[in-house]
Amino acid sequence: MFCSNCGATLEENTAFCGTCGTKVGSNAPATSTATDSQDSDKLFAILVHLGGIFFGFIPALIIYLMKKDSPGWMLDNAKEALNWQITLLLGYVVGFLLTFIIIGIFLIWALVIANLVLCIIGAIKAADKGVYRYPFALHLVK
User: Fold this and answer.
1) DSSP characters over 9-75
2) What is the rounded distance in angstroms from the CA atom of residue 82 to the CA atom of residue 61?
3) Assign residue 115 a region: left if phi > 0, alpha if psi is -120 to 50, beta otherwise?
4) How far apart are CA 51 and CA 127, in angstroms?
5) CA–CA separation, 136 and 44 (whole Å)
6) H/E element holding 114?
7) What is the rounded distance in angstroms from the CA atom of residue 73 to the CA atom of residue 53?
8) Which helix (H) or strand (E) holds 83?
9) Handedness of CA 131, 71, 58, 142 (dihedral sign)
10) Are 126 and 49 in contact (CB under 8 A)?
11) Mean pLDDT, to the nearest integer, of 36-49?
C-alpha cells in the first residue's frame, strides 16, 4: 500500500502516512485548524513589528483593530508595536522642530536607526511567540 500524496510505503490498517501526514484514502494532508491559526498569528506578530520599519504605525493599527477582541500574545505584540510607532512619530515631530538648531537632524537619524534595530528584535521575539517590550515606548494603548 502506498501514500497517494507522497508515494511512501504504508503498512496495512494505517490511518495516516508517517511521512507526510496525509490521511490514507484522501488526497488532502491532515492539518489542524488550530495549527493554521497559530501560524497565521505568528506571521501577523512578525509583520506587525517589521511593518513599522516601512509603513510606520499603519500595520500595527490594522492588526490591533483586527485582534482587539481576542486577547493573547498576538494582541500584546500589536499593542507594543503600536505604542512604539506612536512614540516614534512623536519623536519625529520633535526632531523636525529641532532641525532649526541642527540637533534635530541627529535626533531623526538616531530614531531611524533605533526603529530599525528595535523592530527587528521585536520580530525575532515574536517568531518565538514572545512579546517584545520596546524600551522607550510611551504606553498610550492599553
Assistant:
1) B--TT-SB-TTT-BBTT-SSB---HHHHHHHHHHHHHHHHHHHHHHHTTHHHHHHHHHHTTS-SHHH
2) 6
3) alpha
4) 14
5) 23
6) helix 103-127
7) 21
8) helix 73-98
9) negative
10) yes
11) 80
The answer to whether residue 9 scores a pLDDT higher than 50 is yes
pLDDT-derived band at 132 (thresholds 50, 70, 90) equals: confident
16 DSSP β-pair partners: 23
- Residues present in the chain in total: 142
79, 137 Cβ separation under 8 angstroms: no
Q: List CB contacts of 120: < 8 A, sequence separation 6 or more.
A: 49, 50, 53
Contact 51, 60 (CB under 8 A): yes
Specify the pTM: 0.68
pLDDT at 33 over 70: no
- Type of residue found at 113: I
Interval 19-28 mean pLDDT:
65
Q: Is 2 helix (H, G, I), strand (E, B) or coil?
A: strand
